Amino acid sequence: MSHETTRRAFLKLGMAAGAGAAAIGVSGCGKSSPEPKKSDAPAGAPGAGALPQGIDLEKWNRIRGEPYELGKFGAMPGVCQLPGPQAKRNWPDRDKYKNVKKVPGMCQLCSTICGIVGYVKDGRVIKIEGNPNDPNSRGHLCARGQAGLNHLYHPERLLYPLKRVGKRGEGKWKRISWDEALDEIADRLKAVRESGKPEEFAFHQGRQRSKDALKRFLDAFGTKTQLSHRALCSGNRRAANLTYLWESDWDLNDVEHSKYILNFGSNAFEAHQGHVPFATRIQNGRFKNGAKLVTFDVRLSNTAGASDEWFAPFPGTDGAIALAMSHAIMAAGLHDAEFIHQWSNVSVEELRTHLKPYTPEWAAKISGMPAADIRRIAIEFAKAAPACTTMCNRGSSAHINGFYNDRAIQLLNGVVGSVGKKGGWCWSPWGGLDPIVKTPPMPPGAKTWSVLEDPPEYPLANVWRRMRVGELIYLYLLQGRAKLQAYMTYNLDSPLTWPEESLTQQVLTDEDLIKFHVCINCFYNETAHYADIVLPWATYLERWDLDARGSYNLRPYVGLRTPMIDPLGESKDVREFFPELAKRIGGGMEKWYEESVEEYMQQWASSVPENPKTGKKGLDRLMEEGVWEGEREPYYEPYNTAITEDKMQGAQVDASTGIITKDGVGIGIMKGDQPVRGFTTPSRQFEIRSLFVEKIGRNEDCSELIAKSGVSKTKSRPANHKGHDVDIDPMPSWFQPKEHQALAENELIMTSFKWNVHNHGRTMNLKWLAEIVHTNPAWLNPVTAAAFDLKDGDWIELTSYYSTELEERSAHLKRDDLKTQDGRRVIATMRVPIVTMQGIHPQAIAMSNSCGHWQYTSVAQARKNPAEVGHLVGSDTATFRDADWQRNMWWEDSSGGDPAKWQRNTGNGWNQNRLMPIAPDPVSGQQSFHDTVVKITKVG
Amino acid sequence: MAYVSTAVISREDAASRSGTYRLLARLWLREVDLDLLQELRQAPLRDSFVAAGGVLPEYERDASDSKTTIENLAIAYCRLFVGPANHLPPFQSVWQAGQFQGTATASMREMIDVVGYDVVPLPGGVMLDHLGVQLDVMGNLLEQLSSWPAEAGSCDQVWELADSFYAKHLLWPADLLATAARQAEDDFYRSFIMLTREFLKSEMQLR
Q1: CATH fold of the domain at B11-204
Q2: Where are the domains of chain B?
Q3: Residues A578-595 pLDDT 10s
Q4: CA distance linking residue A148 with residue A161, whole number of Å
Q5: ipTM
Q6: Does residue A533 belong to the interface with chain B, where contact is any CB pair within 8 Å?
Q7: Which helix (H) or strand (E) is A633 found in, with range?
């Protein structure tokens, strides 16, 4: 067709379309007719301003620049020209931050929740920085936080509600309106409520920071099946802390004032829930206070590498080393006898006797760490007391013996008396917001029970806090132990981040096991792929929250998360659509949503006091400053706080124990003739011996013990836990999982780790971060590699096995579906390349757990869409070797899975969790991510 | 010297071109619904659509159930432009800067203000540098030109505005259109993508 012919055809088309009925046109209502704007000048004159049709020529003349000439600017003229040689000459752009608006927020790219400031210009966030007003992070922001712009403006973000078409997991979708989505969801949830089994609606969160909004909705609905990822994270550390303290599950080591820091398995410089606030304080402690940092880690992490000493013990033996250290400290007479006597519930002699078998020589045999070093480090630690502290995290916790590891580690602080001391092992009762801020009234807590939320086999999972055992839920559904009529996932990526990927996928695909699945997320991740409806969630830069973490200042604060811009597309936050959903479900739910979001936030923040300098208070103050911290004293030695005479009125004192109770509830303990608060434990002491955990393990009634603690939320285990007894040692002790006791020659223990630029499952789609780390070869010690005739870049096949320890201890997890090999049940096999690293224990193999996405955007999958060479305007390779994201990823893997063709540092890695068995610690339910025995075989 | 645009043809042409822009805008911005499907079935739109290179949805060809056709078209549209994976977001910022809300969006905001374009009828949440919005803005501009009152005087500056808008906001989609045409599995959508490409080319040739 000639140009003229084509043009005539288009003109005819336009005539026909223009003559068509209301269907044609953007609104379906035909043409728009803008209101004419007023102007003083005669119409049509130069600079006349608005014309009758609405065109504003005055404005046009101001902004038009040079007249357009075809070909003058090359292929892409005009203001939208891409970076290129011109951009370089304009560097730095000194006007970039002129006229910006600074908007406060709280990061959410990991769990640390650092305060941030967004620089907003022309409706766009152009930069994110740390908020210096944040008392915890103090203005620092890591690479993840900086990459928040990638998250906000990612071109593959979910922008519209989607409904599945075809089979679940087929990947076929159509766009629907919010009304359609909410109507359908409401119908399904209403039916669940009306069935009389509200617990068959499960809400499953990954990382969440809008606890009030979720709790409001779920309690109003009436389901307590509120699932989380806690057991995959920090269950054992929390359980260990609670065993000693009851008051807090989270130690806030006062490292900034320490002289000695013992780090068991924590990689605070790269990961850790307190990451930036904690890491900066560790460094301050070291460089301003002279603190020594000693790290025990299977792998040379960046934290280990920056430490003063690093030891690589056999995986899971942290507790053995810690007990041996306690033994050595007592043997050297360097224990704090007064603290043990005054403030623990064991005597010095009892403790010494208990620790007798745990010698450094015993620990050396198990861990591989020299006995002389165990002794030396222990004595150095003790001599620094009370300004010394242990720290631990998943490295010591995520084991079948993790509860015992962490209990043994925390014991060290009791032995040297650094508990609650400045520079020592501290905590605070405020794990989040300052209690000065209160939400509008909340619905009463839901009263249902589901085995998914409260598995009876794990005595410490829910007894103090609801930690749950998240990794079990898909297995329990498969076993028919629970039913789900509806399942709602929220910022969760269980097919990637949970163990046993294939089982997770199997259950998520099954429409009988999960009848209806709604996924709320910012991106189409692996979980969304198995949903029926996907709701586009607003990012943390587009929504409201009050938020805070446990602060290393040992006092609470209040942070504000604000919509820096309007949510893109049709994405919404739960604060916006949960009220709508509640109204559609009805049945009384709607009465909990009387305020608008802004009114709710105003009410919630209303108690933030006035800033005397600015006169602003409440939400206004937070909008300006971002964060408010009260003036409480740091929470040092709370157990020594005197009880006032007022409070003692009507109290009773037990003559034999000194425990003070009021109306049957513990409030303190007598120390000499002085009534003090003590610890909020049954003995009102630092509980080295915990009768509570022993009795709870055996399903005995603990109401008397609980009453003495004064902690009303804790209860004895419910009746449906009967018959599920677990022996829990009342004293800190240690055992080694059976499968670790005699590894075969071709067996190693697989561990996982996080990079400093990634979290577990939500950052691999961010190009700035994926550029730095996007793949995860397995780390192998060169000596081990040589034994297998392997060198850098060679490939191995890993076969992972189910735990023989758990086969015996946890019969309810019996898996007849798993095939056996050499007497053990096989979980999975996977082929990966290796990298040889001296910095890893010779009997361990490590992979980062952030890689291996098969959804979650092209960047996370390192997949290029079809594109023509040179099509990306601005990808001037002479000037920019690393063009922006658009379909131009230099790390693309073209091997097609063929190891022989694979090139180093390409591809998007391998999902390590495919190899991990479901392996909850029998005491707390924490997933044992660092215990899996794998067999390795050279490939090719 | 007064601006002389080679795109100044006639008012009638401007009106017709506006119609084409607005039809394409509608197709880009939202899925085909029953009303639009019925319009496409009827003359003169049906014939002119086909004459311009369009392929009608299956409904017309094999008289299958219209609800199924609408659903299939919605799936095709979603797969191409909405997601959730391996799609081609039709936003200028994405294709120029690899992310949403680039300078193209800010520029569109300014241009919309200058043109006096009413954003209210747009689908909720649409970002201003969506190709459909850009086509519709151009359609609006040409519509205003086609009904230019004599008493308003010369419209040379407005033609210049139209040319500038075209250069800034309608020259970019060549790669999107080429990729989308390759990825489209549905004949209707492939044809409308090609139609868009050819139309924009023909508009380019006017300048």
Answers
A1: TorD-like (1.10.3480)
A2: 11-204
A3: 999 999 999 999 999 999
A4: 23
A5: 0.94
A6: no
A7: none
